[in-house]
Amino acid sequence: MIAIGCDHGGYELKQAIIEHLKFRGVEFVDCGCNGEKADYPDIAEKVCEKVVSGECEKAILVCGTGIGMSMSANKIKGIRAAVCSDWYSAKYTRLHNDANVLCLGGRVLGAGLALELVDVFLDTEFEGGRHSARIEKVMKLEVK
Ligand code: RB5
Which residues are CB-contacts of 21 (< 8 A; sequence separation ≥ 6)? Predict the structure, then answer.
């Protein structure tokens, strides 16, 4: 199960991603917004709660740039959010960082590229191994 959410800057792209998830047969929960003005920290909190609780394994957040969503999401314990606008970063943030939230910029990316980023993010497993100890160190920073 994937959680997805956006503010008004990411609404159009979120809807395109939702159509893509339906086409792929990926189960998702849409946490809004529905096109109305929304503050990205509120949506990030709602979406990330689904990941932290275990209801969803990963999440996708869309705002104008992806940056506000990623800043907000990374304040939440247990979240490793990556804002990506290229395929390599979307792949390696799964392989090396075990990112559990992908943040995208609806005013930055075209839908074609964004859907490729969604696919590689959803389809790539964490590599583990030498990266596990680094992720443990990252997560320890949460308690500082
Ligand atoms: C909203 O206008 C815009 O500031 C927001 O979508 C996002 O880009 C923030 O990072």
Answer: 2, 4, 28, 118
